[in-house]
């Protein structure tokens, strides 16, 4: 996607400018976006409410310099449940709970099987147990 933007002089009233900036950030923050996909389109459309943009789409697989446009990545939901069935990691509460381009899995696993290999077990376990009990 190529983006063209015109920038304007700041508002004469700094408070109004600050309120508009906060409004824009508040609208953009919850959007889950990556370098491709619906989240990127939603983000650019929202930015287009504030500044004029001309958007062009580039097909997956197109070579751009030394890079290739990847497949789109879109997500609807993701979560991890504790043994009581409570969601302790929930994409719908924070899109930061999922790393972009993650692949879906549907399986049950023990806490030890899920523990990162490069983390001290007692520190990681205390962190997870605190989340599970809250």
Strand order of the largest sheet: 1-2
Q: How many individual helices?
A: 4
Largest sheet: 2 strands, antiparallel
* Uncertain regions spanning at least 5 consecutive residues: none
Radius of gyration (Å):
20 Å
Task: Explain the layout of strands and helices.
Elements: E1 2-5, H1 14-28, H2 38-47, E2 53-56, E3 63-64, E4 67-68, E5 79-81, E6 87-90, H3 111-114, H4 121-133
Antiparallel strand pairs: 1-2, 3-4, 5-6
Walk me through this protein's architecture:
There is one protein chain. The chain is α+β, with helices and mostly antiparallel strands. Helix content is 31%, strand content 14%. Strands 1-2 form a two-stranded antiparallel ribbon. It has a two-stranded antiparallel ribbon with strand order 3-4.
How would you sum up this structure in a few lines?
The chain is an alpha+beta fold.
List the defining traits of the structure above.
single chain; two-stranded antiparallel ribbon; 14% strand; 134 residues
